[in-house]
Please model this.
Amino acid sequence: MIKPPWIRRVRRALLAAGATAALAAGLLTATATTSQAATQGPCDIYAAGGTPCVAAHSTTRALYGAYNGPLYQVKRVSDNTTKDILPLNTGGVADAAAQESFCANTSCVITVIYDQSGKGNKLTQALRGHWPGPAEGGNDNLANAFEAPVTVGGHKAYGVYVAPGTGYRNNNTNGIATGDQPEGMYAIFDGTHYNGGCCFDYGNAETTGNDDGNGTMEALYFGNSKGWGYGSGPGPWVMADMENGLFSGVNTRFNDIPSVSHRFLTAILKGSHNQWAIRGGNAQSGSLSTYYNGVRPNATGYNPMKKQGAIILGIGGDNSNTGAGTFYEGVMTSGYPSDATENAVQANITAAGYNSGSTSTGSLTPGSRISLKATTSPCCTSHYLRHNDADTKVVISPINSASAATDKADATWIVRAGLANTSCLSFESANDPGQFLRHSNYQLYLNTDTGGSSFAKDATFCPTTGNSGSGTSFQSLNFPTKYIRHYNYTAYIAGNGGSNAWDSTRSWAQDASWVTASPWS
Ligand code: AHR
Model:
C-alpha cells in the first residue's frame, strides 16, 4: 500500500520524537486505512500514537486534517441570533471573516465550542455550581468573541478570552476518563494573560458542579495562584488541578517547576494511576520540557484518582470563577500519551504558526498599542491619558522619553474591539492585562473586566472626529452625549455643559479631543 504524504510526515515526526519504528509503522498502518486527510492535525498524531482524542476544542483551527465541521458558535447581541464558524478549508484555520461580518455593528459572545472528536463533548456556558457565580444570574459569563485576536498560519482567528466570571462546561460527556483511568490533555494558552484567582482550568472535573473531594478532578491549571501549590519564581505556572489542590509535583506546596509566560504556551498534563506529568513549551517554536514526572501528590485522596469525566474551561471544578486566561485550542485523550506522541504534537503546533493578532502601532486598529495625547493648549499638550499606580483612577500627566518605564507603561493602551459594540473601541491597559478603561459615576477608572454586559458598555467608546476639529474624540457608548475628557488633570466622560463640574463648557472641545500617538511602551 502506498502511504499518503501526511502519514509519512507523522511517521517521521514520531520517529524523530523517539517512537520505535515498530510502533510508528504499526499504528500508522492502522490509521492510514481510515483517513484520507491531506494534512494532519494534533488529533491525527494522538490517534497514531494509540491515545485518540475524545475531546478536541478550538476556536482557531481544525485539530484533525480531515475536519471541516463547525469549530464554534457565536451569538450576536443585536438580535440574539447565532452562527457557526467553520474552518476556511478542511483541516484549516477558522473563518474569522464570517464572525466579523455576522457581528458587525453589534457585539458577539462565544456560545458553543464544538467537539471535533466526534464524541459530542462540546462546551457551553457553565451553570452556577457550588461556588456562587457572579451577579448576573449566577451562571458564568460567555467570552466576548473579539477579545483574543491572533493569526494562525497568517490567517486571522479569535481565541477564548476568559475574564473572571467567564466559564464553559460539559457535565454529560462521552469517552472521557473516569475513576483512575489514564488520560492526557494539552492546551494552548496566552502565557501573558493570567491571574491568581481560582481557577483558570481546562480538563477533567466533577459532573456535579460541586467540590466532590480530593482526586475528583484532573485538569490543566495556568496562573500564579499561590493558595495551593506553586513553583519557582513569581509564576505563572502550569499546574494540575486535582481538586482541593493545584499541584506542581509530589509535594503539596512547592516543587521546583519554572515560571512560564510564552505569549503562546503549550501546556500538557497526563495521568495514569499513580503516575502523572506536567510538560510545556513555547507554542511558536522549540520543543517541550518536562516540568514534573512522577507519583501522585503526597496527600490523601489522590491515589487512586476518582475522576468524574466532566470537562471545564476557565473555571474550577466547583465553578470557582475568579481565574483569568486565554484559550486557543486543547484536547483530551483516552489513554496516557507517550512523550514521543506529545513531542510530535508540539511540532504540529509550532508549524501551525500562531502569532499575535496585530502588531501595528499608533493607530486605532484593534490589537495595536497606542498612547493618547491631550490637545488642550497651553496646559496639557505634553500630557497623556494614563492610569495611576496607587489607585484605579485615570488621569493625565506629562510623559516624555526620560519618564520612568512604569509611567510610560501606564500611559500605553492596547486597542480592542469595543466590548459592547465591535464598531467602537475599548482600551486595555498595556501593563495590567485584563483591566480596561471604563467609566463609573462619570469618572474614568482602570478596572478588571468582569465579563458582564454593564461593564462592557461602560468600557466601550466610539471614535469620532475630534470635537475641536482635530484629533479624535471618544464618545461613551451608553451616554452618547458624553466624551472622554480631562478636567483638572483627571479623566471623565463629560458633556458640553451639564450638572457636573467636569461638564464645564470652558475648553470642553479641546479637553475632549486627543491625538493618537505611538505607544510609550
Ligand atoms: O483544586 C482547586 C479548586 O478547589 C478547584 O478547582 C475547586 O473545585 C476547589 O474550590
Residues 198-199, 211, 241, 243-246, 316-318, 320 surround alpha-L-arabinofuranose (CB under 6 Å). Confidence is low (pLDDT under 50) at residues 1-8, 13-37.
